[in-house]
Write a structure and sequence with these properties.
With about 130 residues, the chain is mostly beta strands. The protein has no helices and 11 strands.
């Protein structure tokens, strides 16, 4: 059973940066694309971005393009979300998730395309 654990969240002022990590145990990430999602209070969980299983392809929602970067270290079984130029509207609980299908050639953006999820880490951006 794969377990994903996010870390690195916290409170930061607008314009600041945070780096989230998503570490896996009990299974490998190296054959799977990984996604990052977030959920703000009172809102549905939304897709933030994803990275291909090999790390060569990434995709981001428009609201974070140019500010967020996803990377991965398959040797460490870990995926990262570097968040720069943070805005108050980025405040949310951030989740990482593993694709349901190994070696998928495209990047999925919907919740149902991911099966294993972390518990989430809170990111709060103050104005």
């Amino acid at each position: 059973q794969v377990q994903l654990v996010e870390s690195g969240g916290g409170l930061v002022q607008a314009g600041g940066s945070l780096r989230l990590s998503c570490a896996a145990s009990g299974g490998t990430l190296r054959r799977y694309a990984m996604g990052w999602f977030r959920q703000a209070p009172g809102k549905e969980r939304e897709f933030v971005g994803a990275i291909s299983w090999g790390g060569g392809n990434t995709y981001y929602v428009d609201s974070v393009k140019g500010r967020f970067t996803i990377s991965r270290d398959n040797a460490k079984n870990t995926v990262y979300l570097q968040m720069n130029s943070l805005k108050p509207e980025d405040t949310a609980v951030y989740y990482c998730a593993r694709d349901t299908k190994s070696f998928r050639t495209s990047l999925a953006v919907t919740n149902i395309s991911y099966d294993y999820w972390g518990q989430g880490t809170q990111v709060t951006v103050s104005s």
